[in-house]
Amino acid sequence: MACVLLFTRLLPFSHRLTRSSVCVFSLFLSYLCYCALFPADSIMQKPADPTAGCQRVLADGAGRLIRKSLSCAPPPDVRPSTDQRAASPAHIGRNDTPSPPVSNLKFGNKKLPNAIIVGVKKGGTRAVLEFIRIHPDVRAAGTETHFFDRNYDRGLEWYRGLMPRTLESQITMEKTPSYFVTKETPHRISAMSQDTKLIVVVRDPVTRAISDYTQTLSKTPDLPSFQDLAFKNQSLGIVDSSWNAIRIGLYVLHLENWLRYFPLTQIHFVSGERLITDPAGELARVQDFLGLKRIVTDKHFYFNRTKGFPCLKKPESSGSPRCLGKSKGRTHVQIDRDAIEQLRDFYRPYNVKFYGMVGHNFKWE
Ligand SMILES: Nc1ncnc2c1ncn2[C@@H]1O[C@H](COP(=O)(O)OS(=O)(=O)O)[C@@H](OP(=O)(O)O)[C@H]1O
To answer: Record-annotated residues binding 3'-phosphoadenylyl sulfate (predicted)?
Structure first.
């Protein structure tokens, strides 16, 4: 309308106009018409809105995820390629600003995670992430972001920038095992979204401590012995619970902190032991918890005798079978039986309390 009015007013004087001013004028008119047809907020996401995207994932009363479609849904046949599914280093560390509409249509948007594997260190967190991300409705950040413990000052937009793009039907995940034992993390995650689903991979705390120590020793060869670090006085059986490798295994104490901010129904516990003996069974429960169709099944796994662990079978299309890297499944440092028994005695009351709290006996005898 404005274009027409302007044009009719100027028409009587048009004979006075030069060629170039006619040109500039018509360009101006085209711009006005474009603005009227495509207002800016219909094609761009608001950068400050952390939940902006094609989908919102909400939790229903049963604790399952419900995906709500918004207006920018990509066509259903657009699926990410293997390359796009793996969170490439190019994605990591790039602070994302809203993308042009064409790439949104093709690859979706970066969204804050709907589900986070928050722990525990050396529990089997990498295995759970690598196994669940073969599900077509899951995409995950490839590296540990450490946003809620080390990088919180960088802000949610920085965090979102680390996430892979997701389509309407996909959920976003990340894993940072240190979150479970960091005091501030539960509060910070609940401030991001109280609907965030939490996954904790737990493992016998004694084996976990030895695994943790084995890893540190591989990087620091002149480390004191395991016993020197684990006990204040071994002959009296006094354990040093301030040593991180011991402290992390006091699961019940850490869980109490999480339960101040999240209901138990929003936290799923994976057995690190069963993840090795029955990966498909554990993954079935993870998929149920996330409200996903059970697509990752025993068809996807085989037991690799050389590695001594389950690995992912070769995908039908291409590629090779995939086992986790050398840093997963290391041969543990030998610890004498007495020390192990003392640690078992130390952890027993905490474990029993933990079983009661989560309603499951993990049988760490
Ligand atoms: N499929 C498969 N392949 C290899 N390793 C497996 C697998 N499933 C579980 N695990 C166990 O995962 C342990 C490492 O745990 P995390 O991935 O949580 O470690 S880390 O905290 O990220 O460093 C790792 O601990 P260690 O055996 O002590 O190395 C493994 O026992």
So the answer is: 122-126, 203, 211, 328-332
